[in-house]
Amino acid sequence: MKIVLDRDILADAVAWTARTLPARPAVPVLAGIHLKAAAELTLSSFDYDVSAQITVPVSSEEEGSALVSGRLLAEISRSLPARPVHIAVEDGRAVLTCGGATFTLLTMPEEEYPALPDMPPAVGSIGSDAFATAVGQSATAAGRDDTLPSLTGVRVEIEGDTLTLVSTDRYRLALRELRWNPVRPDLSAAVLVPARALTDTARALTSGAEVSIALALPGDDGPGGDGMIGFEGAGRRTTTRLLGGEFPRYHGLLPKTVNATAELPTALLAESVKRVALVAERNTALRLAFSTGQLLLEAGTGDEAQAEEVLDADFSGNDLSVAFNPQYLLDGLAAIDSDVVRISFTEPGKPALLTGKPGPDGTQDFRYLLMPIRLGG
């Protein structure tokens, strides 16, 4: 194999492919990136759960393929000077030359590398920027405890031309609804996608205008199969095996009526929460007291450092006090794509609902449900 390509194109392609490489591969070849050169160069990676592939233009002097260390190739490609990159593979070695720099990498046995899974059937498409924003919002509440795998995912619900993305770690819940372009308007499905893989993919596919979504439901890829979801755009494609397990039934948690509401500038409230929470020990509560025209934020106790701050607030309802995990509150505020946040309350001890400005039809496309912390005494 002998090829020449632009340094930035190589670095970008290797970065996309290397993001799925396992930190502790089950077998050594899974730490590799597979290069296949013909009229174009295709780079691939696979760890049996997530696959990534990208095709980029090259000047090919000699077709061929090679499997090289992915992490090392990523580090090298980032550090190369802004010159054309020459890659030649021969006798078990891949030689990269760029300007005056030359790197020689040992190749890995290609015959031991597994075949990448086929892309599932396409089920629809959506604008890449809108998709990335929605995934970022909906993944906010995903759990990070791998002993509860069903809580580490984002539930993707497809109902006609509506996509619903929702995650929860049992202490908060993030839900985002948006329109998309289905291939089958009658399709109704719900799957659980690993949140980390979904977030990385959505962010990396914004270089194209649209993202195509493909889906194989559990059982479609063979007996006992967990199913698979695929994403494709801008010459990049990736597949991710779906998570199993039961996702919590969340619909009954969303309040139908509210007894009190408060509206504040989102950025101003976030800044105040950050300041007051400076004195809060890890996992301790931030107290919020709402009354007519104002919000009082407090943290700390008599035996520790203390802080308080008063903000103007448009509050309706009876005076109330509530306590939240400050980081969970900040996560919700950061996910709200609105300059004003509305906090809605039902009953003491019940979750509060954070939303932004309603749409023209009065609906909310993003909702963040946050459980309060019970304070002693």
Molecular structure report:
Helices cover 17% and strands 41% of the residues. The protein has 377 residues and is α+β, with helices and mostly antiparallel strands. It folds into three domains: 111 residues, DNA Polymerase III, Chain A, domain 2 (Roll); 120 residues, DNA Polymerase III, subunit A, domain 2 (DNA Polymerase III, Chain A, domain 2, Roll), CATH 3.10.150; 116 residues, DNA Polymerase III, Chain A, domain 2 (Roll), CATH 3.10.150.10. The radius of gyration is 25 Å and the shape is elongated. It is built from six helices and 27 strands.
How many strands, which pairing sense, and closed or not: the largest β-sheet?
A: 9 strands, antiparallel
CATH architecture of the largest domain: Roll
Q: Would you tell me the structural class of the helices and strands?
A: alpha+beta
**Domains, number:** 3
- Whole-number average pLDDT? 93
What would CATH call the class of the largest domain?
Alpha Beta
User: Oligomeric status of the shown chains?
Assistant: single chain
User: Total number of β-strand segments?
Assistant: 27
